[in-house]
Amino acid sequence: MEAAPGPRLSARLRRWAPELAFLALWVGQGALAGATPPLADEAYYRLWADRLQLGYLDHPPGVAAWVALGGGTGRALTWLCAGAAWWALAGVLRRLGAEQWRWLPALGLAT
Fold first, then answer.
1. Are 72 and 54 within 8 A, CB to CB?
2. What would the pLDDT profile of 61-78 be if each residue is shown by its tens digit?
3. Which of 37, 59, 34, 38 shows the shortest CA–CA distance to 48?
4. How many Å apart are CA 64 and CA 53, to the nearest integer?
5. Smallest Cα–Cα separation from 99: which of 9, 25, 18?
6. 3-state SS class at 66
7. Residues 11-61 pLDDT 10s
8. Left, alpha or beta for 4 (phi > 0: left; psi -120 to 50: alpha)?
9. C-alpha–C-alpha distance, residues 12 and 70, integer Å
């Protein structure tokens, strides 16, 4: 008699849980960005991306850097670039065997 496949599947899901959480968050963010119109803040961020600085009067430069990385053309390209960067970090952490840090890309994307 064969063992039930449930425990093996559960172990496999646990092993890939950080990557699956990241993928779910990334797809959810893309769907939300595609379904909603641009906001006023996004125009402000695009202006920042045109002239990158080390800091701004009321915000740190991270948002402008992500928009500039995406070419300043809109949410879709920025979303793809951010996802690719976080996915690359997840791959590096997996190869390094940094199990305790594997949730970092999913947590970063969730912010």
1. no
2. 777 777 777 666 666 777
3. 59
4. 9
5. 18
6. helix
7. 777 778 887 888 888 888 888 877 877 777 777 777 777 888 887 777 777
8. beta
9. 34
